[in-house]
Amino acid sequence: MRKLKGVVSHHEREITELSADRELAVEYLKAAMESLDNPDDRAAGLLALRTVAEAYGGLAVVAAEAGISRESLYRTLSPKGNPTLKTLLAVLKTVGLRLSVESEPHAHV
Question: What SUPFAM superfamilies does the entry give (predicted)?
């Protein structure tokens, strides 16, 4: 299979756009994190966090700065990953983001 000249993969383009636009990265993660509530769709949120980590330094750099082994981060941010709160917070902090809580629009209190 030959590679087409000037063609960029969707993933590479996504990383480029997310690294160039911080607000886009925030909104991208917000939308993807909603999938974490659904066990059948959890992979989307984990892969989005992985993509943002790639956009903001790469997985090896993020892992080192977060105090996590690279292999552990790859596993944690895989479709079947199950990050601890500590890992999630460390990765978010490393890429310059933080976890926040919002009211559910249709919450019954």
Answer: lambda repressor-like DNA-binding domains
